[in-house]
Amino acid sequence: MITMALTKGAEKWKSKKWFNVYPPELLGSNVIGEMPADDDGRMMGRIIKSSMSWITNKMEHSFMVVGLKVVDVNGNAAHTELRYLEQTYSYLHSLVKRHSSAIYTVDNLKDSKGRPIILKLLVVTRNKIALPKRKAIRKELTALVTGYAASRDSDAMVKEIIDGSFQGECIKKVSNIAEISKLEIKRLELA
Q: Which CATH architecture has domain 89-190?
């Protein structure tokens, strides 16, 4: 009875097909892994969570996690699109220290093509700041991010977030209000 159950499970795994998973073009073209599935239809729609450093081969991206959704299957190749980009909780938690302020923003945006984007930012200041300054930083960032997203498509925005130029522009904009220690993208969601 037990051997029959074991062979049944083994046959099920032997019948599965392995698919190579490819990231979106903006992240590269190397295979990032393999996944088993019964057929092509079962691969569609799966969301794969991976470390950004695994895709870009850069250690500075080791705290960044991406969610990739399978949108196309050709033969044994599964092509994906970016669904979300986020920093690990342990990294974000390590940024906030005593005698500093953490300011969170959540913005619902639209890119130049009308695609919805949810952007969550974390700003850490060098010293504790008063509530009016926190509100001013939040207001300034929301205005900047809304204009920034409206003038670019989501792919260009993701590239600028990955290389850090977006964060640099945000820091320049709000550094006249208070001394900024760090500005990070907490999460970016593409619909």
A: 2-Layer Sandwich (3.30)
